[in-house]
Amino acid sequence: MKSSLAIYDMDRTITRRATYTPFLIHAALRLAPWRLALLPIVALMMLAYAAKLIDRGRLKEINYRLLIGGAMDPARLDPIIQSFADKQVATNILPGARASIAADRAAGRRVVMATASYRLYAGAIAERLGIHDVIATETQLDASGRIIARIEGSNCYGDAKLAMIETWLEREGLTREAVHIRFYSDHISDSVVHHWSDEPVATNAHDRLIKLAKSEGWEVLDWRK
After folding, report:
1. Interatomic CA distance for residues 219 and 197, integer angstroms
2. Per-residue pLDDT band at 98 (split at 50, 70, 90)
3. Of 164, 172, 199, 162, which Cα lies nearest the Cα of 184?
4. Which residue, 194, 171, 191, is CA-closest to 182?
5. pTM for the complete prediction?
6. Where are the domains of the chain?
């Protein structure tokens, strides 16, 4: 008998709003409020990404460095991560997502989060939702064990997300043939994972993904209504 997995994207799938920039601002306010004066540069970096001058991973690294700063002891950052996660779970989780996670768990599915967001805070949000398996973008540590504004490995986005899910399966001792996978996401960038899964679900999706889902016969859900 196959094991069953329910894999969820996080931003705008489980949450109403994206979390990355709010996390940076939340941290800047508590660590060094003067860094908020750098927000115009953050906006310029976003324009550089839109113009394809930098990729998403580099955008994340630059904006993290601008608003949080350099190497930081995890113990200093942890209370900020925890307060941010508390705020997100209190105000930014879609009720439909909570109900779906509960239903998947009740049906015997192992619930997994796979998100491009940093594990730093995505893991804390997942923990509060009772999700113990998290695949996410990792941050590097320097030689002293301090968190730095560099991505360890790949940004968990697009093709890289699928590769990281496959690596996680291998690490867990699971073969693709031995699992049945239901996958929820809102964004076309995750269509590679939708195609790879057994039960693709376009969730709170934008127009491009809805169009693809309808052409492929995938389930379409909208928890925002």
Report:
1. 12
2. very high
3. 199
4. 194
5. 0.95
6. 3-17+81-221
